[in-house]
């Protein structure tokens, strides 16, 4: 009796595995192959759309902050330098391309590349910091209160991650 149950269980398991793999194979054909950027299915264009949305939000936030600050003509050049330094660094390619590049490197090469990228981020942060400090020095005490309130980190909901440069 046990022999029959064991073989039935084995057959049921094999049938379940075959059916499951068939469903997975069929669902892979249901996904589009990709678009011109080479990203597959659901990822196609998602990063570009999110970057565009982020750029719009950043521009709107800076515009609202500028209105609240009521800048004088003398403060405009410092504002323009601040706004320019606040823009994110241009993307250097997709994460998939970077991942592929990293896979081809040896560990020391990867570490060197990561260190170079880190140094670029630090230099960019120093540039931003300098621009903020120069602009902040141009503000009146009342404007500084408005600026500080407008530059506090905002809560980001699910899926709204900070963009790294």
Condensed summary:
The protein is mostly helical and 165 residues long. Helices cover 70% and strands 0% of the residues.
Number of strands: 0
If you average the pLDDT, what whole number results?
A: 76
First CA to last CA: what distance?
66 Å
Outline the biggest β-sheet: none
Radius of gyration: 26 Å
Category by helix and strand content:
mainly alpha
- Fraction of residues in helices? over 70%
Number of helices: 6
Strand content: under 5%
Low-confidence residue ranges: none
The H-and-E topology, N to C, reads as: HHHHHH
Write a structural description.
This protein has 165 residues and is mainly alpha-helical. The chain has a domain at 58-87 and 95-152. It has helices spanning 2-30, 46-69, 76-86, 95-104, 107-138, 141-150. It is elongated.
Quickly list its features.
mainly alpha; 165 residues; elongated; 6 helices
SSE arrangement:
Layout lengths: L1 H29 L15 H24 L6 H11 L8 H10 L2 H32 L2 H10 L15
Helix pairs in contact: 2-6, 3-5
């Amino acid at each position: 009796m046990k022999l029959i149950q064991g073989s039935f269980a084995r057959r049921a398991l094999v049938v379940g595995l075959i059916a499951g793999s068939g469903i997975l194979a069929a669902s892979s054909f249901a996904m589009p192959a990709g678009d011109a950027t080479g990203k597959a299915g659901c990822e196609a264009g998602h990063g570009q759309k999110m970057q565009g949305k982020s750029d719009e939000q950043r521009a709107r936030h800076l515009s609202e902050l500028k209105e609240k600050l009521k800048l004088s003509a003398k403060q405009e050049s410092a504002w323009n330098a601040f706004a320019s330094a606040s823009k994110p660094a241009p993307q250097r390619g997709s994460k998939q391309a970077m991942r592929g590049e990293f896979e081809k490197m040896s560990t020391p090469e990867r570490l060197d590349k990561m260190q170079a990228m880190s140094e670029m981020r630090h230099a960019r942060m120093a540039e931003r910091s300098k621009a903020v400090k120069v602009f902040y020095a141009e503000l009146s005490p009342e404007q500084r209160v408005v600026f500080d309130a407008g530059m506090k980190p905002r809560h980001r909901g699910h899926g709204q991650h900070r963009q790294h440069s």
